[in-house]
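Design request, tokens follow.
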């Protein structure tokens, strides 16, 4: 993961002082991601906060051709460039990668969002949930999670299928997160050593 420190620092610098929003995809989620970026452009500055982590060149090229302002980082994990779904090994690898990425990002940025492209925003999430206000429930939170469904944090969105996460980190919170990835790490060292090696951090 050390090879990706520089591109992430550059993308985070472009985002500015606001917490970036990370979205992960491959070419099989490309159309829905293009729609998602179009949706975010209804809200000034929202798409500027996106950092798209893509697993194949097709996604990288298409996103940059469609939205030149977008922050796109190509992370060439061949196993995640193919189609996958819940229950198969590639999906488990995706979950492991996302957890490792979260730990990795805590070393680069104080806080960040992790979003999915299968939700249509009717309001600007970054304004709806004010994480900079230390006097409300969100401003005091270390971690914010939302589950699938039309209630909770995503009640102002349409068809929220994905999970929304906000992570606000200090050294104490990093110590909390790191052990959470160990069981998945053990699984992939046993079952998918080549994939686990590519995620070494």
């Amino acid at each position: 993961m050390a090879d990706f420190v520089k591109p992430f620092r550059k993308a985070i610098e472009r985002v500015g002082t606001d917490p970036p929003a990370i979205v992960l995809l491959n070419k099989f989620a490309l159309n829905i991601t293009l729609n998602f970026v179009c949706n975010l452009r209804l809200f000034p500055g929202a798409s500027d906060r996106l950092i798209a982590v893509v697993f194949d060149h097709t996604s990288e090229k298409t996103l940059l051709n469609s939205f030149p302002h977008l922050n796109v980082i190509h992370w060439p994990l061949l196993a995640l460039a193919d189609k996958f779904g819940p229950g198969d090994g590639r999906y488990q690898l995706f979950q492991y990668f996302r957890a490792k990425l979260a730990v990795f990002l805590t070393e680069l940025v104080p806080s960040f969002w992790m979003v999915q492209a299968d939700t249509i925003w009717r309001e600007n999430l970054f304004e709806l949930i004010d994480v900079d206000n230390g006097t409300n429930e969100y401003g005091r939170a270390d971690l914010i999670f939302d589950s699938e469904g039309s209630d909770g944090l995503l009640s102002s969105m349409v068809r929220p299928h994905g999970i929304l996460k906000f992570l606000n980190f200090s050294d104490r919170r990093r110590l909390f997160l790191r052990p959470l990835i160990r069981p998945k790490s053990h699984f992939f060292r046993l079952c998918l050593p080549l994939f686990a090696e590519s995620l070494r951090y």
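Comment from the thread starter after seeing the answer: thanks! The first strand starts at residue 21 and ends at 25.
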